[in-house]
Amino acid sequence: MKTLLLLPALATMLVSATISANTTQFSQGRQLSSASDYQVLPARQRVAIENRILNERLEQVLPTLMAESELDMWLVINREYAEDPVYFTLVPQPTFAARRTTMLLFNRLADGTIEKLSVNRYPLGEPYQSAWAGGNLTEQWQALAAEIVKRKPQKIGINTSEHWPVADGLTSGLHQQLVKALPADYQNRLVSAEQLVVRWLEQRTEAELELYPQIVSLARSVIAEAFSNKVITPGVTSTDDVAWYLRERFEQLDLPVWFMPYVNLQRQGLACEADNPFCGTSGVIQRGDVLHTDVGICYLKLCTDTQEMAYVLKNTETDAPAGLKAALATGNRWQDILTGEFKTGRSGNTILANTIKEAKRAGINSSTYTHAIGFVGHAPGPTIGMWDNQGPTPVQGDWPLYANTAYAIEGNIKQALPEWDQLVHVKLEQSAYFDGKRVIYLAGRQTQWHLIR
């Protein structure tokens, strides 16, 4: 690997970026301090809210998306322990599994409304009308086929997809059973429902966007707790200690994480190589260290993905060094370049290419790997770069940007830090949504360093 000393041209560019970086306050900056500032509903109280939003989505969102996808009918068929990824976004709570074989049938009527039927041994209840219950598996498949034929759909969407895992939930065995159960002239009416599945999962409603800021605030607030003297004693606390604090604090709040929180440090003398995609190591935290974390939680069916940075003050310091402030400002500038490229209908690949071009023009050494968030942390929608591919991503990168969709604005910048005489790596990720005209951070964004004193 090449060091900064072997790359004088790059070093000159990065030092220039450091000196010229705008360290003024960026828009939507927000500091949080404690998750105790926010309410977390007990499990019982979450059910009514989640079911109200589900009913709104089925009544208001699904008809539009089925028409958009030109599907007459949509089938979601899965079995216990092999649930379709989209299944839990469609069923009322509390639902913990697809009991035995569970079949959902959505039929688009002439007036645009959607019939919602269940063909299950155990009826789901509202908002589904039970078309069949009880009996054996053979009778269940016969009942499903009868309900399909009764409605004469021309295009029947099923969850099979080559490129989108979330839209590939119909197992091979169930697919075979479905084809076997249908009359011959209906078998060729089965088509992939991938467009509908992706749109269903990525589309956010007004009610969800009212809740989302609280959810993201909880994630950011726990990070603020972790990056404080409440948790960190310089010279004693390790990066793993902080990661486990994050994990256990979320458990205490009954907020499930969708991946193990990650914490790392950068330190003067531990070189950050220009060609290393991610700089940072683990160990005991010392004064003068730069810290980074990556966390993701889910609450009220919505997930977050957040990365923030902290600095451990030396005994002689009262604030972060000017070089670190400039580096964070460069990271915020990169965010603004990226979000400024969000235009309805523009593909993820185009957004990425434009962002890279503008960042280079601004003298910023950046990497962009932004993705949709929602019912899952790595949600379907336009892929805007990958950490290991800063070029076009086939299929997912070609997906267009729609209004009222949510994203993890994720990426990083490297910049020369004069105080260390080496590169520093600022890795940022903040949850936001696109309203069709601009990107709005759901709980603000980090524009100031977390400081451990």
Automatic annotation (TrEMBL):
This is M24 family metallopeptidase. Keywords: Signal. It holds the Pfam family Peptidase_M24. InterPro entries: Pept_M24. It comes from the Bacteria. It comes from Arsukibacterium indicum. Residues 217-382 form the Peptidase M24 domain. Residues 1-21 form the signal peptide.
